[in-house]
Amino acid sequence: MQVGLVGSGNMARGLARGWRRSLLCTDPLADRAQALADEVGGTFVATNVELAQRADLVVLCHKPAQLDAVAAEVAPYARAVASILGGVPLEDLRVAYPGRPVYRFLPNTPVELRQGVVVRAADAEQDEALDAAVAGLFAELGTLVEVDDALVDVAMGLMSCAPAYVALLVEAQVDAGVRRGLTPDKASEMVVATFAGTAALLRARGNDTLAVRREVTSPGGSTARGLAALEHAGVRAAFDDALGAVLGAA
After folding, report:
1. 211 neighbors 205 (Cβ within 8 angstroms)
2. Distance CA 105, CA 94 (A)
3. 47: which strand partners?
4. How many CB atoms sit inside 10 A of residue 8's CB?
5. How many angstroms separate the CA atoms of 49 and 54, rounded?
6. What is the pLDDT at residue 4?
7. Binding residues
8. Which residue in 23, 24, 27 sits closest to 9, CA to CA?
9. Structural domains in the chain, sorted by start
10. Which positions make up the binding site for NADPH?
11. The whole model's pTM is what?
């Protein structure tokens, strides 16, 4: 399947690195599209029209506000369209690309390592073979989770924004260690490795967060005191507020 990326920004770059195949690339900034094509062994294409004519699947990686303008160029020629545009539901994609198979996905940045999460908006069958091929393409990038189209933005607030949240949590924990004498490099090494290992442990435990916490939390012990301090500081409310802020801005 020949894939074409309309837009060559950060998320397009993550997809391209994760797919590890020759891609067609366009962007309003030609140098950016050329750089991405060079990096992944793909092909720079000068126009969206040419990309749509050559691609089996057009992946929309442009800004959501450009939906109609891009569709005016791409829709007459596209064979199938997959969108990663935040806040653009399936119905809007169908209006922009009438008579074409359309798919809605939302990835996060770890897809470039094939360790990301990709949310897929549930939809009725369009073409059995094509549906499977497109889903398989995005499944190469990590964990593929299907949710109702109306919940994709909620999912975005959990997984698409989460790499920034995790990075902030790492920074906060490293800062706490540095204030108490650890060097930044040693603190970072320990915290990042602990986050990665804990994620693997949670997966091995079937995502049972309570079980993992209990394994390291003795009654009245140091971990219990640390958890109590986090709860007192409102860590759960902070994440709920963050999701509310994301959805309020969508």
Report:
1. yes
2. 14
3. none
4. 28
5. 9
6. 98
7. 48
8. 27
9. 3-147 (3.40.50.720), 162-249 (1.10.3730.10)
10. 48
11. 0.89
